[in-house]
Amino acid sequence: MGVKKSYPNEKRKFNKEKMKNIVKGFLSNPIYLISLIAIVFLVHTIVVPLWQMLSNTLLWGEGDQLINPDAIPGGLTIEHWKQMLTSEASKNVFYKPILRSLGIGVAVSIMALIMGGALAWLVTRSDIPYKKTLTFLAVIPYMIPSWMKSMAWLTVFKNDRVGGAPGLLQFIFGVGPPDWIAYGFLPIVIVLGGMHYYVYFFLLTAAALNSVNSNMEETANILGAPRITILRRITFPLILPAILSGVILVFSKAIGTFGPAAFLGLPVNFYVISTMLYSNMQTGMLTEGYILSLTLIVLAALVIYINQKMIGKRKGYDTVGGKDGRKTMMPLGRWRMPVFVTVIIFMVSSAVVPLALLLLQSFMLKDGVYTLSNFTTHFWIGKANPDIAMGNVGVLVNDSIGLALKNSLLIAVIGAGVAALIGIIFGYIVAKGRNSFTGKVVEQLAFAPYLIPGIALSAIYLTMFAKPGLFLPSLYGTLSIIILITIVKDLPFATRAGVSNMFQISGELEEAAQIQGASFFKRFFRIMLPLTKQGILSAFIIAFISAMKQLDLVLLLVTPKTGTLATITYEYADTGYPQFANAIMLIIIAITMVVYYVSSKWGKADLSKGIGG
Amino acid sequence: MSRIELKNINKHFGDNHVLKGIDFVIEDGDFMTLLGPSGCGKTTTLRVITGLENPEGGIVTIGGKEVVNGENKYYAPPAKRDLNLVFQSYALWPHMTVYENVAFGLTVKKFPKNEIRQKVEAALDKLQILPYIDRYPSELSGGQQQRVSIARAIVTEPKILLLDEPLSNLDAKLRLEMRSELKRLHNELNTTIIYVTHDQVEALTLSTKIAVFFEGELVQLDEPRNIYRNPADLRVADFVGNPQINLIDAFCSYKDGSLLTESVIGKLSVPTTKSYEGECVMALYPEDIQIFEQRRADATKCTVYSVLPAGSETLMQLTMDDETVILAKYMGEKDYEIGSSLWIKISSDKINVYDKNSGKIIAEKESYEELNGRVLA
Ligand SMILES: Nc1ncnc2c1ncn2[C@@H]1O[C@H](COP(=O)(O)OP(=O)(O)OP(=O)(O)O)[C@@H](O)[C@H]1O
Ligand SMILES: [Mg+2]
């Protein structure tokens, strides 16, 4: 009966055998090697770019001598920051854009929270009719790029102040709407919050509400708690983590947003951080652009930090078992139909109307003239005609658009596929090394691209990968660099999805295979991968959709040969051919819708799973 | 060839010292049960033997070969240890059919196809689940899933089989069936089995040896009947008793090889080899109490507090004074009125006496071997 109380007195002296075994154990366990590769990859694609950005703002550049006689190229200086923060121009090029971006971030978050939350509550907890249809419709706006909705907005509200054809309202009533409705802060917030990012809140809150077993609420009810108390003490705390992570997503996306800010802000010189950044990049003021980017990164990181403090330990309540729990639906009574109609009107105006308008506009010979005689199919299938659109042919017969379509599909399929796969591998590393250093490093680094504005990241990539580097030849002008940046930008979502998928698989499933002698790769491909199939697919769809709409991330990187549908659209819109732009956008949307429909129908993909909710 | 030896195994989870110097030997062919309350380290011990968890200190050898050496940080991978584990949660792969689940280990070991089929079918047949071969785990009942996970573990014919609370999720009837199934498998396959359970009856029926754990320490390792007969300390006594052991506070003194105890059940003289004086606790099983309806000189009077009929037997709670409640068992049906008087007699050879402070045993009953030896002689 060995009841030994003596513990081993650890020998601290150097032990050759022990070192050998530690090294052997390290090498024979692939998770260490994979973590190592993951970290090298993340450092190369994320940390190094960030470091280059930072060092660029703190060093004198080659050309700076012309402006400042004290400049020694390569020398350390804070002059760039001083210039940016304290000169006369600071107000316009730095403070104003930042304040505007922050304002947009706050307003968009609030608007999206209210609309998305209300919608989620309606479809999960009330007796509103046609819930399935509503849920499907609610996600559609996510598939329509926000910059496209901005163009639709312009189609309706544009006034003649800025030149070009007038909008629909002006055409009908003869007077254009005032500038503050047509351009700037208000339309940007409405387009982003009310028509776009509410989808995040909707998906996250609906998933959380669904997982709250209504038995939990009923228990409280039996205990005699009044309705409002139940909402406050039970329901709200349970969905709070979902709401807060929605705030993170929406706020940090909104303060970095480019498309709507460009379309709706630039006509009235309403600059926000990202558009300022773009104009800096275009005029070669890289350093100023980087300073803005770094400021944006710090702001977003700060918001996330505060948010995490608020979530604290509450993150992730375990509310499984909610699935079978019967839900008691709150009757809306005589408000049922009015609420339903309001929701439908809302959805129609944020999804159907923009689409219809763009479709309509793509058939108009002269922009802004809504008569039957102005109808043409030229912009779709027209042959070259020097009288129309400088001899450009219709989009369906245009070779360069065919090329762009091929590029877009290649980028989206490969980028999203690789990102989803890497996400699962990272998820494995994080879930297995829950408390290990490598796990934490991978998790944190993989989230970083979320905070880096796309334009700044692409500017850095342009300089970093233009010359041959570590393992790689020069990537400038190739699709590879665009695919690479797409993967990197998709990593945050893909990794979150991977982590939450991996956490759902009990470790014992893998251990059972390990005991049987299955190698790491066998376990990964035979056990882990098949079990996360649905999660991978969902992550793939999210990444695919976002890659198809990607504009600011790739705008600086494309060459005529590597243009995508999105960048071509931007060029057409920028050069004054909205009909072409609209036609191409409709193609983009058609592709994403088909992919989404097919994958959710046959692959059971679930967008809320894809964003790691 | 599959003797397992654990030497001074220490395992921490952070600051939590989960295994505290575990030492034991499992002989070839043993059916060893690890018994103990929740959180005492049974699963961790299994996982250490399997290689899924690496202890910081200690040595594990299997069949004379070292598989763990904490000092040198040497840990042989699980697959090299020729053993298999049945997880408490079954851990069946939900995306594979019963056949694929069971065949997995054989495909990894690159057996020829027809041989795999043959072995899998034989294993499924042995566990009487052959008809479900093409189903997915979610299409099986809990008991069937259970048997699939056992089939998966035995199909590769490991030298050692480890089972972690394999019957905890089954209903009483299925549990009984599976117990005899396991016992049969043990005889048939001639493997060494290490078994984990909370259930003391299960441990007593199945095992050739029981190891009782408390808070990461091995407190007693013995044959089942000796564990039952002579629990090494109060915690073990309290744990293995079924339905429950009576623990009666007493005061004792030592005289000529006997302990004289004084308690609510009167004075008793218990033979012992150790000399001890002071506060002690007497442990006795409900079935060892003789009950009389009439007053007797050698019995103590008590009052019926409650009667709990349990089919073939009747349990009774009896009060001696205001504080002490004694549980007694009567084989057969009996109904006494609450509050009526009974007389109970306890013979001193049915009693274990423990030191109240350390909880260690002072006076134990004769072991089964001694008892048998005397009867035969
Ligand atoms: N991975 C882990 N990390 C931290 N602590 C752990 C871990 N696994 C087990 N423990 C702790 O180690 C102790 C022993 O756990 P173990 O699972 O071995 O108990 P057990 O005897 O199997 O219990 P049960 O009968 O409830 O299954 C417990 O206190 C548990 O909280
Ligand atoms: Mg356990």
Which keywords apply here?
heterodimer; A: 613 residues; mainly alpha; MetI-like fold; 2 domains; 28 helices; disordered N terminus; B: 377 residues; alpha+beta; Rossmann fold; OB fold (Dihydrolipoamide Acetyltransferase, E2P); 6-stranded mixed beta sheet; 6-stranded antiparallel beta sheet; 22 strands; 36% strand; binds adenosine-5'-triphosphate; binds magnesium ion
Short synopsis of the structure:
By secondary structure, chain A is an all-alpha fold. Chain A has 28 helices and no strands.
Give a structural overview:
The complex is a heterodimer of chains A (613) and B (377). By secondary structure, chain A is mostly helical. Chain A has helices at 16-28, 30-58, 64-67, 79-86, 90-125, 131-143, 146-157, 168-173, 179-182, 185-211, 214-222, 227-255, 259-265, 273-282, 286-311, 336-361, 378-381, 399-432, 437-447, 454-464, 479-503, 507-515, 520-531, 533-549, 552-555, 565-574, 578-602, 607-610. Chain A has two domains: 88-318 and 331-361, Orthogonal Bundle (MetI-like fold); 398-613, Orthogonal Bundle (MetI-like fold). Chain A contains 28 helices and no strands. Chain B is α+β, with helices and mostly antiparallel strands. Chain B folds into two domains: 4-229, Rossmann fold (3-Layer(aba) Sandwich), CATH 3.40.50.300; 290-345, Nucleic acid-binding proteins (OB fold (Dihydrolipoamide Acetyltransferase, E2P)). Helices cover 25% and strands 36% of the residues of chain B. Chain B has nine helices and 22 strands. In chain B, the strands form four sheets. Chain B has a six-stranded mixed beta sheet with strand order 7-8-9-3-10-11, with helices on both faces. Chain B has a six-stranded antiparallel beta sheet with strand order 14-13-12-15-21-22. Chain B has a five-stranded antiparallel beta sheet with strand order 2-1-4-5-6, covered by helices on one side. Chain B is globular, with a radius of gyration of 24 Å. Chain B starts with a strand and ends with a helix. The model of chain B has no long low-confidence stretch (mean pLDDT 87). Classes of the chains: A mainly alpha (613), B alpha+beta (377). Chain A binds chain B through residues 1-8, 10-11, 15, 17-18, 21-22, 25, 28, 506, 508-509, 511-518, 522, 526-527, 530-531, and chain B through 8, 10, 20-21, 23-24, 50-52, 57-58, 69-75, 77-79, 83-85, 87, 89, 91, 93-95, 104-105, 108-109, 152, 156, 217-222, 232. Magnesium ion is lined by residues 42-43, 164 of chain B.
